[in-house]
Design a protein that fits this description.
Blueprint: H1 2-12, H2 15-44, E1 49-55, H3 64-78, E2 83-89, H4 102-111, E3 119-123, H5 125-138, E4 144-150, E5 163-168, H6 172-182, E6 188-193, H7 197-209, E7 218-221, H8 227-234, E8 241-247, H9 261-269, E9 274-275, E10 288-289, H10 294-309, E11 328-330, H11 331-336, E12 349-351, H12 357-360, H13 362-442, H14 448-476, E13 484-487, H15 488-505, E14 509-513, E15 520-523, H16 525-545, E16 552-560, E17 563-570, H17 598-608, E18 612-617, E19 623-630
Parallel strand pairs: 1-2, 1-3, 3-4, 4-5, 6-7, 6-8, 8-9, 11-12, 14-16
Antiparallel strand pairs: 10-11, 13-15, 16-17, 17-19, 18-19
Bound molecules: adenosine-5'-diphosphate.
Length: 633
């Protein structure tokens, strides 16, 4: 097929191209004798080493192709000399009825006349047999290395002092015991071995060697079947069957199976596990077991070749027969056939293990895990920080509440005289009215209407006194800082009510101008009252101290955007410009008996309500304090 394609290619090639090729051919042919002479010369000088490789079936037949490939690359790697490796394949080994070998021998003879190789390497049994048979004619004095050849196929009588054998030994019993070890339920094994003379030899050998298994396991022979038929049968095997892959170079139909296609096709269709004892097949379907390793044979062959090329006597190089290595298994096949790793011999090696997600993305997963850890750490750190802040906030509010409470006591202390006065007034009226009523009732015809009027007055005075006490209580009540909806106008009025008596007593005009619509803010009403009270006490102090006649304090509530505003303006002397920035500082005072905590507490309370407070001086004189709080909702 390949040949006919190439030939047809030549026949359709246009004339100028053909002419060019012809010319090139003539040129190459003309230069050949000189190249050959130079090669001979270099070889004579010991610079170039010539290696002749003889393949058994062809260059791409497994298992030998894999041995040859490894030997060649190792040889090239280890050689101190430039190498000329020439390869020939013994095609006659392919035919089930071998044809004449003479023409091939003649061809090699004419090719190597006068340019004998430095070493001849035969790969596999057919090539070994050929080399031994024709060496006297072809290369009588050239050292010969027979490699990758099974012990039983070596013609020992024909070996001489110029020969090295790298032999291997197939242990079919060990191979089958492996099958029964890993799959103890196996009842029958179908043996895949081809039909070339070499393969037929092996069929007989396997039969002979496995005699002890008679009765234990049934052996089915496929050597008389075409590979097509083998595939059909392998796809319908009964349970408890295994396939043994020996060799498939040429099938019973005479079809040659090069490369790895045959094994792969079998693996694709087979409904039973495949076993083989050759590393070159391992990885393409077989489950595994004890096997011949390429590297072992290749290393010994290369060592022998390098020794010979360096001048060592072949007879001095001895090589023992190589047996199976420790068992190897294909992880993918173990999984496919449900073979537990515990069934494998202790020294086995498992290859082709597919990494699990963790093994495959180890670094990525580690990075992600690290990122999660860092993130988790940060989050918990932040949460901890947040918690600490909340605890600190609660604590500071509590402290503020306590401080504010103490401050209220001192404010109320300042108001005591006028509060007492405010209480005295209704109490005094009540007493006078009660005495008057008594007198009226002792008359002969008491004026009942008048008495009723007096009693109403008594009741009104009593309510007035009760109101003073209620206000006092409410402002002195020790409550924790609590946030709720507050009607600002009412809260301011309540505070003013407490200060009213003092203002009256000091002849201060205290006026209140609330915004007509009510303003709602969120906060603690007691604390906001305290703010107003503190500011009014300060204003009263300021206007009292003032020499000038006008004693006025005006309080108003307004709306400024989305903020509620309370302004407290007085007609006192105002605040010295240098002190404006300091009045809210703790312990700042200009009063002989002052503590300097009033405004500091005011500012703290306002800020705890998310508001602000500023102090300023009026152009007309007097101070003005403006506090702003966010309007609720
Ligand atoms: P104290 O009243 O104990 O001095 P405050 O913190 O209430 O403490 O006030 C601090 C200072 O601010 C006062 O000493 C005074 O100098 C000044 N101040 C406060 N309010 C007024 C005001 N209405 N007019 C003038 N100065 C004021």
């Amino acid at each position: 097929m390949e040949l006919s394609r190439r030939m047809s290619g030549v026949s359709v090639r246009p004339w100028p191209a053909t002419a060019a090729l012809l010319y090139l051919g003539l040129f190459v042919a003309a230069s050949l004798p000189s190249a050959r002479a130079e090669a001979v010369e270099r070889s004579r000088r010991g610079e170039l080493k010539r290696v002749l490789v003889l393949h058994s079936f062809g260059r791409e037949f497994r298992p030998w192709s894999e041995y040859a490939r490894d030997i060649k690359s190792e040889l090239e790697r280890q050689s101190r000399w430039p190498l000329d490796i020439q390869e020939h394949a013994l095609l006659t080994a392919r035919f089930n009825i071998p044809g004449p070998e003479a023409p091939f021998v003649e061809y090699l003879h004419s090719l190597y006349q006068g340019v004998t190789p430095d070493v001849v390497l035969s790969i596999g049994a057919p090539a070994a047999r050929f080399a031994q048979r024709y060496r006297a004619k072809l290369f009588p004095d050239t050292p010969l290395i027979l490699t990758a050849v099974e012990d039983r196929l070596i013609h020992r009588a024909g070996l001489g002092s110029n020969d090295v054998v790298v032999a291997i030994r197939n242990d079919f019993m060990a191979a089958f015991e492996n099958i029964l070890q890993v799959l103890p339920d196996t009842k029958s094994v179908a043996v895949v071995i081809g039909a070339s003379p070499l393969e037929r030899f092996w069929v007989e050998e396997v039969k002979r060697e496995l005699k002890p298994l008679d009765g234990r396991v049934e052996l089915v022979w496929y050597s008389d079947l075409s590979f097509e038929e083998i595939l059909k049968r392998a796809s319908k095997l009964p349970p408890g069957t295994a396939l043994f892959w020996g060799l498939m170079s040429v099938d019973a139909a005479g079809v040659v199976h090069e490369s790895d296609i045959a094994l792969r096709s079998l693996h694709a269709v087979a409904n039973a596990p495949i076993f083989s004892y050759q590393e070159p097949f391992f990885g393409d379907g077989p489950v595994g077991g004890p096997m011949h390793l390429i590297a072992e044979t290749s290393a010994r062959t290369v060592r022998a070749a390098i020794g010979i090329l360096g001048g060592a006597k072949p007879a001095s190089i001895n090589s023992e027969t190589i047996g199976f290595s420790a068992p190897r298994y294909d992880w993918r096949e173990l999984r496919r056939w449900g073979i537990s790793e515990s069934r494998l011999p202790p020294d086995s090696q498992i290859l082709f293990r597919e990494p699990n997600i963790w093994e495959r993305y180890r670094w990525q997963m580690l990075m992600v895990a690290a990122a999660f850890l860092v993130q988790g750490g940060l989050i918990s750190g932040l949460l901890h920080e947040r918690r600490r802040r909340m605890v600190a906030e609660v604590e500071s509010r509590q402290r503020l509440a306590e401080l504010a409470h103490a401050n209220r006591y001192s404010a109320v202390g300042e108001l005591t005289t006028s509060i007492a006065h405010e209480l005295n007034q209704p109490l005094g009226s009540i007493l006078t009215n009660a005495e008057t009523a008594e007198l009226m009732l002792s008359a002969n015809t008491p004026d009942i209407n008048e008495v009723r009027q007096i009693l109403a007055d008594i009741r009104r005075d009593d309510q007035r006194a009760s109101e003073v006490i209620r206000r006092l209580r409410s402002v002195l009540k020790k409550t924790p800082f609590e946030i709720r909806d507050i009607a600002l106008n009412g809260t301011v009025r309540e505070a003013l009510g407490l200060a009213k008596a003092v203002a009256d007593g000091r002849r201060i005009a205290l006026t209140y101008t609330p915004l007509t619509t009510d303003l709602h803010v969120r906060g603690d009403p007691v604390q906001l009252q305290q703010v107003i009270l503190n500011l009014i006490i300060n204003a009263m102090d300021a206007v009292t101290d003032a020499d000038a006649g006008r004693r006025e304090i005006s309080v108003s509530t307004l709306r400024a955007g989305n903020q509620a505003e309370v302004r407290i303006t007085d007609t006192g002397p105002g605040i010295a410009p240098a002190d404006l920035a300091k009045v809210f500082d703790p312990f700042f005072t200009t009063k002989p008996q002052g503590m300097g905590m009033g405004l500091a507490i005011v500012k703290t309370i306002i800020e705890a309500h998310h508001g602000e407070i500023v102090a300023a001086n009026h152009a007309a004189g007097g101070a003005q304090f403006t506090m702003r709080l966010p309007i609720a909702g």
